């Protein structure tokens, strides 16, 4: 007769614990839902940080975040694969190379600073806009032509569809085209690949957003201004853009709460700043 | 009934099956039911697999041929100008890259793999063979991204040191990575083929006074030839479809590889780099599907080749 007693008691205990746990959680938040985020790898550090903080506050919301490239963001929202498409430009308008996405709303989330970066062994630390244009279009091929040592420049570019590429081309190269061929030219798929390529290739130059800049690479000044928050705010450093979360129509439910959490002053001035993004309110 | 009729003669065995009983659930109808159900299940499973394969083929082909609405056949297959942003879709450089990379991989991998197989099957003592074989089998299972990462972080800097190039990404780096990847596959299957050569061939060869070297290269290897070719084709199929490792070391630049160190691209690496960034209903997307179809067709041809070789081998022995 006593055989059933122990398991039954355990079950009762588990049920009461689960109920207790649930009631604690519902005290914190009753928000439920599932959010799928895809898109920009530049915005991924921010998305992941916001995800872990938001899930602590709202344990019943499931968030999965992944990143391929900016253009994949609004495209997966259009296909219905993702609820949020992270993109480094306002995809509800036309930009060079990409048409606007009808019916999608662009929710600004952060200011991203992009930096031209070089391998540690490069002695040059400042380039002008003209020099950058000539290097990335393949006209200047040796570091000695821009004041460095006598070594060939290795140009690392991001693949077509990258938001970092769109922003860098628009703002650092002022719309000038990239080279696409050559012995010292290669393309990488994501911000992470770019980071590895710059860190491991001597004489390489590329570009990346500030959260990915490590001390194993060198962030170059452009026209005498270093890529820092201070220089963005005082207007001397121009290579930055606003990152957006695209949603199908106005966001609702958990998605809305998540975007509002990122836009809140607490997150913008806290974790977002620590990750080397700049709060939206600072530049507007 | 007397006791004798209880002993069933061998001819009578199964009689209960042949004669219909009155009971609807007797042994005979039960067996018939289960047999036919089982048969239907097996056939439908086989049909399902065929349908999936044909579905994939047809989908890839149907989406792929839409490329030719805007791009000429000649441009796609015979031009090396891949610049989709400006409407140029020349895929020859990827097709060339794929074949060049596979060829180079085999040139590097096959001799070493066959020597490893000879060592395993003919030369090494039993205890070492029994350790090495499972290790080779484990090597086959290492994910390709690991090989790619090692290539990116160890092999490419080494190649830069050796050659003095600024950027060593290209066919050679990718071929070395792939060669290391397919080496265990080719070596283990060749090893099995060599081990399967009957001992009497070797005995006869030694009896005629040949050395061990002559026995191995004049008798054993020719006898195991079809098995070794089978191994090479399997390795080749793996090399042709490999993506992750290749994309990390090939440079991903759409230009014809005119040297071993020119950053270039192959069918697989170009598809994986671009497929996530293109518009769904665009010529660019269709062109990538067509390249996928080409890859699929090449792999299928290789598999058919393996089957034909197997049949030939079976007949010869």
From TrEMBL, chain A:
It comes from the Bacteria. InterPro entries: PBP_domain (IPR024370), Phosphate_ABC_transporter (IPR050811). Keywords: Lipoprotein, Palmitate, Phosphate transport, Signal, Transport. Residues 27-265 form the PBP domain. Its main location: membrane. It is found in: Cell membrane. Gene3D superfamilies: Periplasmic binding protein-like II. PANTHER family: PERIPLASMIC PHOSPHATE BINDING COMPONENT OF PHOSPHATE ABC TRANSPORTER (PTHR30570), PHOSPHATE-BINDING PROTEIN PSTS 1 (PTHR30570:SF4). Part of the ABC transporter complex PstSACB involved in phosphate import. This is Phosphate ABC transporter substrate-binding protein. It comes from Cohnella hashimotonis.
């Amino acid at each position: 007769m006593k055989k059933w007693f122990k398991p039954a008691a355990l079950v009762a205990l588990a049920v009461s614990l689960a109920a207790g746990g649930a009631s604690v959680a519902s005290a914190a938040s009753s928000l439920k839902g599932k959010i799928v985020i895809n898109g920009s790898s530049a915005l991924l550090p921010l998305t992941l940080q916001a995800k872990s903080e938001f899930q602590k506050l709202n344990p019943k919301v499931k968030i999965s975040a992944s990143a391929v490239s900016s253009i994949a963001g609004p495209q997966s929202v259009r296909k219905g694969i993702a609820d949020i498409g992270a993109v480094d430009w306002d995809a509800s308008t036309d930009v060079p190379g990409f048409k606007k996405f009808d019916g999608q709303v662009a929710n600004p989330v952060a200011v991203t600073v992009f930096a031209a970066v070089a391998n540690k062994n490069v002695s040059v630390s400042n380039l002008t806009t003209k020099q950058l244009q000539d290097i990335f279009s393949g006209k200047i091929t040796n570091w000695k032509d821009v004041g460095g040592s006598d070594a060939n420049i290795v140009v690392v570019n991001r693949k077509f569809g990258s938001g970092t590429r769109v922003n860098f081309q628009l703002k650092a190269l002022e719309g000038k085209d990239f080279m696409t061929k050559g012995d010292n030219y290669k393309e990488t798929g994501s911000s992470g690949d770019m980071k590895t390529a710059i860190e491991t290739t001597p004489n390489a130059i590329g570009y990346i957003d500030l959260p990915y800049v490590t001390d194993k690479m060198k962030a170059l000044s452009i026209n005498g201004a270093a890529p820092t928050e201070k220089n963005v705010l005082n207007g001397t450093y121009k290579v930055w853009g606003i990152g957006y979360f695209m949603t199908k129509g106005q966001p609702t439910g958990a998605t809305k709460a998540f975007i509002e959490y990122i836009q809140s002053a607490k997150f913008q001035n806290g974790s977002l700043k620590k990750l080397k993004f700049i709060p939206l309110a600072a530049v507007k | 009934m007397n006791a004798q009729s209880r002993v069933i003669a061998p001819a009578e065995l199964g009689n209960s099956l042949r004669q219909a009983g009155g009971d609807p659930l007797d042994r005979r109808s039960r067996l018939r039911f289960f047999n036919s159900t089982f048969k239907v299940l097996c056939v439908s499973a086989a049909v399902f697999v065929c349908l999936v394969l044909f579905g994939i083929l047809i989908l890839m082909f149907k989406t792929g041929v839409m490329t030719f609405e805007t791009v000429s056949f000649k441009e796609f297959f015979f031009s090396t100008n891949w610049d989709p942003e400006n409407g140029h879709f020349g895929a020859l450089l990827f097709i060339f890259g794929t074949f060049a990379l596979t060829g180079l991989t085999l040139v590097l991998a096959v001799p070493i793999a066959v020597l490893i197989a000879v060592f395993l099957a003919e030369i090494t003592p039993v205890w070492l063979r029994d350790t090495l074989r499972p290790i080779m089998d484990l090597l086959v299972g290492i994910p390709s991204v690991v090989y790619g990462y090692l290539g990116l972080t160890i092999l490419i800097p080494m190649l830069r040191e050796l050659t003095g190039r600024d950027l060593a990404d290209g066919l050679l780096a990718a071929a070395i990575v792939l060669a290391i990847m397919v080496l265990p596959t080719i070596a283990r299957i060749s090893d099995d083929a060599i081990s399967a050569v009957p001992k009497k061939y070797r005995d006869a060869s030694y009896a005629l006074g040949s050395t061990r070297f002559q026995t191995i290269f004049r008798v054993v290897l020719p006898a195991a030839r079809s098995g070794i070719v089978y191994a090479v084709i399997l390795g080749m199929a793996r090399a042709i479809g490999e993506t992750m490792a290749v994309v990390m070391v090939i440079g991903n630049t759409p230009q014809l590889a005119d040297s071993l160190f020119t950053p270039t691209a192959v069918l697989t690496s170009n598809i994986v780099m671009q497929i996530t960034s293109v518009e769904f209903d665009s010529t660019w997307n269709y062109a990538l599907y067509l390249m996928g179809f080409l890859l699929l067709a090449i792999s299928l041809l290789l598999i058919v080749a393996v089957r034909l070789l197997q049949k030939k081998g079976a007949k010869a022995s």
